[in-house]
Amino acid sequence: MRAMLLRFMCLIFATWLVAPSLALAQAQSLSRSDEKNIRAVVQSQLDAFASDNSEKAFSYATPGIQKVMGSAERFMAVVQSSYPMVYRPASVAFLRPNEVTGEVIQRVQITDAAGSQWLATYRMELQKNKTWRIGGCVVVPDTRQSA
User: Fold this and answer.
1) Angle between helices 2-22 and 72-82 (to 10 degrees)
2) Among the four residues 18, 47, 57, 91, which has the most C-beta atoms within 10 Å?
């Protein structure tokens, strides 16, 4: 069951991983307020991971992710096992969020405890109540220069 869930999550996230990088030239600017709020949501989730607060971390996920994961405990278990660099980063550097072909993304450069560099791409969704939530995260090795 867990392996099937992880494959499903990877498939979901892989479908939108390539599009933002291909359409970078079409990126549009977000308001400063949106940029600030998006960064705050991602940072708040990272802080919740750091304090092992699964309920708080889960609260920053979109309703769709919450439905797929089913519970805060399952969500935290997936993050711990599949995204250890997000669960316990040694350092993070936020890049500027932007909108690419209708998707709002926030990229974060992460250094893990071993010193390896990662690029986390968060897909952000604006909710009806005008708050931002995380609709997915793809993490790949970061081969670019540090921010």
Assistant:
1) 70
2) 57
Token pair belonging to 46: 């990272």
Q: Check the CA dihedral 82-93-103-125 and report its sign.
A: positive
> Does residue 103 form part of some domain?
yes
Alpha-carbon distance of 65 to 50, in angstroms, equals: 20
As a whole number of angstroms, the distance between CA 66 and CA 55 comes to 11
* Whether this model's pTM surpasses 0.85: no
Tens digit of each residue's pLDDT, the chain (147 residues): 555 444 445 444 444 443 444 344 445 679 999 999 999 999 999 999 999 999 999 999 999 999 999 999 999 999 999 999 999 999 999 999 999 888 999 999 999 999 999 999 999 999 999 999 999 999 999 987 655
Domain, as residue range, for 36: 2-141
Q: What is the CATH number of the domain that holds 125?
A: 3.10.450
Q: How many domains does the chain have?
A: 1
